[in-house]
Amino acid sequence: MDQLTIKQATVLTGKSEATIRRVLKKALAKKQKKAIKKGNVWLIDKDFLISEFSLDPDRQETNRDPNNDPAIQALIKQLEIKDQQIIELNKRLSEANILQKQLQDNLFSIKQIEDKKPNIFRRLLGK
């Protein structure tokens, strides 16, 4: 009886971690002893996963080599492009914040000048 962790079960089944946990919770609710908890780690019976998800029993875990897989290479290239876009957007955001600060300072100084102009109330009250 092979025991797999939840992470290994996700690789074997191709399902998400949440799905594996949901199936595990359902099996435990039915009092099926298909998994055991050792510390903080759940160990799940491999045969149970195969039967639950109707998998081919001979299916083996596949580890992709990122250097030889064109799909992974394309995704890495897209990530590099997105990283550059994020850097550019952060620069623009920084520039916008500087301009906004300058405009706020200018507005504040104009407001102070307008407040010093005499108006009817200041003349009447002598301030």
Task: Provide a brief overview of the structure.
The chain is mainly alpha-helical and 127 residues long. Helices cover 64% and strands 9% of the residues. It is built from 5 helices and 3 strands.
Describe this protein's structure.
The protein has 127 residues and is mostly helical. It folds into 2 domains: 3-52; 70-125. 64% of the residues lie in helices and 9% in strands. It has 5 helices and 3 strands. The longest helix is centred in the last third of the chain and has 47 residues, at 70-116. The model has no long low-confidence stretch (mean pLDDT 81).
Q: What class do helices, strands and sheet pairing give?
A: mainly alpha
Strand content: 5-15%
How do the strands of the widest beta sheet line up side by side? Answer: 1-3-2
- Termini Cα gap: 92 Å
**What would the principal axes of the Cα set say about the shape?**
elongated
Number of strands: 3
The percent range for helix content is 55-70%
H-E order = EHHEEHHH
* Largest pleated sheet: 3 strands, antiparallel
Number of helices: 5
- Tally of discrete structural domains: 2
Mean pLDDT: 81
List unreliable stretches of 5+ residues: none
Report the C-alpha radius of gyration, rounded: 32 Å
